[in-house]
């Protein structure tokens, strides 16, 4: 094993054609951001556009960009992105290409946007698995729903001038889950399940102070809710009823009125869990590691007694340039 095996490495294909060797001498910077939920993952590629290697051709809108990052012996597929915008600037002459995991418009393989507004209803009893599957098929994508969510039945839902991506986000929020488009799939999974778009478990990152370049822990002193109250309409009694998660003060009352008791309780539980996690965060900068992915688990060891333990990565930013390969992580408590 030689020194070359530890040098940062990348691979990029556009519509199935490997253009890595063409980009390598021109690459100024590659930044890939992976975040939880419907925040669109993105890749930004900055290239030198001087006459030394010939002028670059403007990328085709909707082109499918696939990216691998890492090292020759640890090259990892990071996902598919749709060419969304291109900027050319100078001096120095450069081209900046931005690709998004969320599709706007139509890709070269026929995948369509999740952002178009629709007007329709979903009948009571529709399962999360059925909802995600129908939306996925409509957009030329594949569904990837965790077993813990697939068979859960939903109340009646009205989708009025609302995009599919917003609807998915709304459903996920009520079940303390994650809805995320990526790599030609729509993923719906419980928070903390740490599954890839293909349904495989993500690796857990074990980090000590020696493995990181810089770290910062923060615990906000803002008050956390003692309890959360959700109101639903009891049709049999003809009056509103309440469901509560947690106990004590302060009390947070949800503004929405829910169609039934189960929906109210599920959302109250989900919101209570989110509020209990609020305030604590861990930021880490480290040598590049392609295994750092949003929704993946991080195990901190040897920092402080109140920091050590499991965390959930909410954002991972990978940066490759002439200075090397670096990864920045934002995480929140897993429990």
Automatic annotation (TrEMBL):
Q: What is this protein called?
A: Late control protein D
Gene source species: Parasedimentitalea maritima
């Amino acid at each position: 094993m030689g020194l070359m095996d530890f040098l940062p490495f990348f691979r990029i294909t556009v519509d199935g054609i490997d253009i890595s060797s063409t980009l390598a001498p021109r690459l100024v910077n590659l930044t890939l951001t992976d975040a939880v939920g419907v925040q669109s993952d993105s890749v930004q590629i900055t290239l030198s556009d001087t006459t030394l290697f010939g002028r670059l051709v403007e990328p085709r809108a909707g082109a499918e960009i696939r990216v691998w990052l890492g090292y020759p012996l640890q090259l990892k597929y990071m996902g598919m992105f749709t060419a969304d915008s291109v900027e050319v600037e100078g001096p120095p002459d450069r081209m900046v290409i931005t690709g998004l995991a969320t599709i706007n418009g139509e890709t070269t393989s026929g995948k369509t946007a999740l952002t178009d507004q629709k007007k329709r209803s979903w009948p009571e009893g529709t399962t999360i698995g059925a909802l995600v599957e129908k939306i996925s098929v409509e957009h030329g994508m594949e569904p990837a729903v965790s077993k813990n969510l697939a068979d859960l039945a939903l109340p009646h839902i009205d989708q009025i001038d609302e995009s599919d991506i917003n609807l998915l986000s709304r459903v996920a929020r009520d079940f303390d889950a994650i809805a995320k488009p990526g790599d030609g799939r729509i993923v719906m999974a419980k928070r903390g399940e740490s599954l890839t778009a293909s349904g495989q478990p993500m690796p857990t990152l074990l980090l000590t102070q020696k493995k990181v370049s810089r770290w910062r822990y923060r615990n906000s002193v803002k008050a956390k809710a003692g309890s959360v109250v959700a109101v639903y309409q009891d049709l049999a009694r003809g009056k509103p009823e309440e469901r509560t998660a947690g106990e004590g003060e302060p009390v947070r009352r949800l503004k929405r009125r829910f169609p039934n008791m189960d929906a109210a309780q599920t959302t109250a539980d989900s919101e209570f869990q989110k509020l209990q996690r609020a305030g604590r965060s861990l930021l880490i900068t480290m040598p590049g590691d392609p295994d750092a992915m949003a929704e993946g688990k991080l195990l901190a060891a040897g920092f402080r007694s109140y920091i050590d333990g499991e965390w959930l990565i909410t954002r991972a930013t990978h940066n490759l340039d002439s200075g090397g390969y670096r990864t920045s992580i934002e995480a929140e408590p897993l429990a």
